[in-house]
Amino acid sequence: xxxxxxxxxxxxxxxxxxxxxxxxxxxxxxxxxxxxxxxxxxxxxxxxxxxxxxxxxxxxxxxxxxxxxxxxxxxxxxxxxxxxxxxxxxxxxxxxxxxxxxxxxxxxxxxxxxxxxxxxxxxxxxxxxxxxxxxxxxxxxxxxxxxxxxxxxxxxxxxxxxxxxxxxxxxxxxxxxxxxxxxxxxxxxxxxxxxxxxxxxxxxxxxxxxxxxxxxxxxxxxxxxxxxxxxxxxxxxxxxxxxxxxxxxxxxxxxxxxxxxxxxxxxxxxxxxx
Length: 274
Prior knowledge:
Largest sheet: 5 strands, mixed
Shape: globular
Radius of gyration: 21 Å
Number of helices: 10
Low-confidence stretches: none
Strand content: 5-15%
Distance between the termini: 50 Å
Strand order of the largest sheet: 1-2-3-5-4
Oligomer: single chain
């Protein structure tokens, strides 16, 4: 994709980059900026319809809007049943079809939110004092596992494994906020049939009768890692005087540093008053 030219594919590319939590540096950042520009100026009909349902102003859409509203909605049909409505929405050029497909996708997103809330309520009995958390429920749709793991990780700030019963095995997702490789930590545990991903997020499949053993080893290994975690440090990009915040050029600079995300976090400044 040539980022120097307007192209409808750029709008799809930026959604993929942000949904897959790609580092927004180098070519990926340039492509993300071009994609946001395309969404703001001439988004495909399906994305226009979806942005309206999400109550987003296309002219000011940001990477955060994509990450928290658009991408989860596009993922929702596939998490619950078939992903067909989502890809059909992205592929159509017909405005009338776009409105209908966007509504199907958005309805699936609302259902996904409700089911996630129910799943989190059912998982709220976890012991927060263990080094890591494992929740398993044979009534959850498999597509909810990653959402539950992510929300519990944010709540407890520790690794979480969320599992659903699927085709005779425990399948699920792991989310890890610690600066350690969760895949390397778990890769040789007996009972784990399949494991893959990256240091902070992974998919897993466990033999039906091995979950208690996996849980014991999971907690043993995470307990060792927890004792060696570095103390949290608050980093600042630099100091700033209060009057600087009122200068228009600061907002221009901030906008040109965007889009923000992994690899390119928003600036953190320390404002001091006399």
